[in-house]
């Protein structure tokens, strides 16, 4: 038994209604044995697992290589927000990834400001853009941004019995 890729470049998740509609369509077409994920080193990895191995690791690598960004974030921010997720009902991945990094490294925000993470609308701070997934390099490929990887490499797989 193994995962078989049945759709590539499935696009953005969208808001809750859009996600639920697509999921119902996949349920009709594939039953309940489908999963969204990525092909990494020739193996299918669920999106949930890729949150750790790709999303979190990309921010971790960025902070390791850009200590000034980490320090500026810690000293400026009291709270982090994702204005795009807030405005569209989309999924927020960057704020949880950054907060997880801080937690795992026993760091905390010490500032007084709400800092947007991303480039949606008017960014609250310069650090907003530098920590956007549109700017962060993906851990697997420094020539590609995290956002580009996350959207363009996403695929749909079904669990298939081997004969």
Summarize it.
This protein is α+β, with helices and mostly antiparallel strands and 163 residues long.
Spans of at least 5 consecutive residues whose pLDDT stays below 50 are none
> How many distinct folded domains?
1
Structural class: alpha+beta
Q: What percentage of residues falls in helices of 4 or more residues?
A: 40-55%
Report strand order across the widest sheet: 1-8-2-3
According to DSSP, the number of beta strands is 8
> Could you spell the SSE succession in H and E letters?
EHEEHHEHHEHEEHE
- What fraction of the residues are assigned to beta strands by DSSP? 15-25%
Straight-line distance between termini? 8 Å
In angstroms, what is the radius of gyration? Answer: 17 Å
Major β-sheet annotation: 4 strands, antiparallel
Please tell me about this protein's structure:
- The chain is an alpha+beta fold.
- It has one domain (2-160).
- It is 45% helix and 25% strand.
- The protein has seven helices and eight strands; from the N terminus they run E-H-E-E-H-H-E-H-H-E-H-E-E-H-E.
- The strands form three sheets. A four-stranded antiparallel sheet has the order 1-8-2-3. Strands 4-5 form a two-stranded parallel ribbon.
- The longest helix is centred in the middle third of the chain and has 19 residues, at 47-65.
- The termini are close together.
- 23% of the residues are buried.
Give the secondary structure arrangement, pairings included.
Layout: E1 2-8, H1 16-30, E2 34-40, E3 43-46, H2 47-65, H3 67-76, E4 77-81, H4 83-88, H5 94-104, E5 113-116, H6 126-130, E6 137-138, E7 141-145, H7 146-152, E8 155-160
Parallel strand pairs: 4-5
Antiparallel strand pairs: 1-8, 2-3, 2-8, 6-7
